[in-house]
Design goal:
The chain has helices spanning about 15-25, 40-50, 60-65, 80-85, 105-110, 155-170, 180-210, 215, 220-230, 235-240, 245-265, 270-290; strands spanning about 5-10, 30-35, 55, 70, 95, 120-125, 145-150, 170-175. By secondary structure, the chain is α/β, with parallel strands linked by helices. It has two domains: about 5-175, 3-Layer(aba) Sandwich (Rossmann fold); about 180-265, 6-phosphogluconate dehydrogenase C-terminal like domain (6-phosphogluconate dehydrogenase C-terminal fold, Orthogonal Bundle). The structure holds 1,4-dihydronicotinamide adenine dinucleotide and 3-(4-hydroxy-phenyl)pyruvic acid. Pathway: Amino-acid biosynthesis; L-tyrosine biosynthesis; (4-hydroxyphenyl)pyruvate from prephenate (NAD(+) route): step 1/1.
Length: about 300
């Protein structure tokens, strides 16, 4: 495929940046890919494993002359990074990000955006519980959604080019409004992560009573929770602090339903439980019938998948 961009700069060389690098190389989507990471150790690892064509020690050098700059850092520092690079961006360049929250990132980044530089926020709905420069693999985005959130007044050509990059990396692209994105993700990703963190925390408390039995005999459901609860603490701290309103709204509803189920168990109300579980089972079946079961064996996952 012809290059979509001549020079792409990846800022923050972790799971998502490294997966983007390998996916861009697989598809021949970028002429040159430069990189910058805050820690010298990460930059050294990146050089050792051939992650990026050039890794710079100076963030401004990494973005100079780039026609696409991708911010792949935790959502709490997106604005800070944008401020650092603002003076070194080429006219006509596009800045995007991959953060799990969109409204807070747009609000942080936009004030630092120079005249003549486009910002198109983004979020690939693909990841694993692993982090760091060695965690990435080219197939991460295959058959996954990547959401784009162009700001008002964004040049449609800048958005179209970014769409072509994500499609070249294997993703299906959809445009979405920032607030809607944050509410949808609170339901499908942020609240579930918090619930997994909580469940593993409860089991950890219990472990002191039951010794290591919780881990030894853990069934698939709990194992899934432990996988999710092994995700990067900095990233997830930032997600919850940046998507506060939507997450609290969903957790409020979750708590109400949990109390109702708790009461049904206490009162022996089997009909309530049965009806509830019948409804939730139908949702799962709907997902499978719609062909959206991304957990099915080999659905959109390559050999290098770490999930
Ligand atoms: N991990 C996942 O499953 C997914 C993560 N995301 C989003 O992608 C972004 C990156 O996540 P990952 O690649 O998983 O994280 P990661 O932890 O693997 O990599 C993040 C990198 O950013 C660097 N960094 C942190 N603060 C920095 C700063 N101030 N300046 C420069 N570099 C800095 C870290 O040192 C690290 O190298 C986050 O915003 C996250 O919300 C989006 C989709 C999935
Ligand atoms: O590993 C998992 O189960 C995930 O849920 C990955 C993930 C984490 C954060 C995102 O913003 C998008 C995807």
């Amino acid at each position: 495929m012809a290059h979509v961009y001549n020079r792409v700069a990846l800022i923050g060389l972790g799971l998502i940046a490294s997966s983007m690098f390998w996916a861009m190389k697989r598809g021949g989507l970028a002429g040159e890919v430069t990189g910058y990471a805050r820690s010298a150790e990460t930059r050294e690892t990146a050089r050792e494993i051939g992650l990026c064509d050039v890794v710079y020690d100076d963030i401004t050098q990494a973005v100079e002359g780039a026609d696409l700059i991708v911010l792949c850092v935790p959502v709490g520092v997106m604005g800070q990074v944008m401020e650092q690079i603002a003076g070194s961006l080429a006219q006509g360049a596009t800045v995007t990000d991959v953060g799990s929250v969109k409204r807070a990132v747009i609000d942080q980044v936009t004030p630092h955006l120079p005249e003549g530089v486009h910002f198109v926020a983004g979020h690939p709905l693909a990841g694993t519980e692993h982090s760091g420069p060695k965690a990435g693999f080219a197939e991460l985005f295959d058959n996954r959604w990547s959401l784009l959130v162009p700001s008002e007044g964004t040049d449609p050509k800048a958005t179209a080019k970014l769409r072509a990059l994500w499609e070249g990396m294997g993703a299906n692209v959809e445009e979405m409004d920032a607030d809607h994105h944050d509410l949808v993700l609170a339901v499908t990703s942020h609240a579930p992560h918090l619930i997994a963190y909580t469940m593993v925390g409860v089991a950890d408390d219990l472990r002191r009573v039951t010794d290591s039995e919780v881990i030894k005999y853990s069934a698939a459901g709990f194992r899934d929770f432990t996988r999710i609860a092994a995700s990067d603490p900095t990233m997830w701290r930032d997600v919850f602090l940046s998507n506060k309103d939507a997450t609290l709204e969903i957790l409020g509803r979750f708590t109400e339903e949990l109390f109702a189920l708790q009461r049904a168990i206490r009162q022996g109300d089997g009909d309530h439980l049965f009806e509830y579980f019948t409804r939730t089972r139908a949702i799962r079946r709907g997902i499978i019938e719609a062909g959206q079961d991304t957990d099915a064996p080999n659905f959109g996952r390559g050999a290098g998948s770490k999930t």
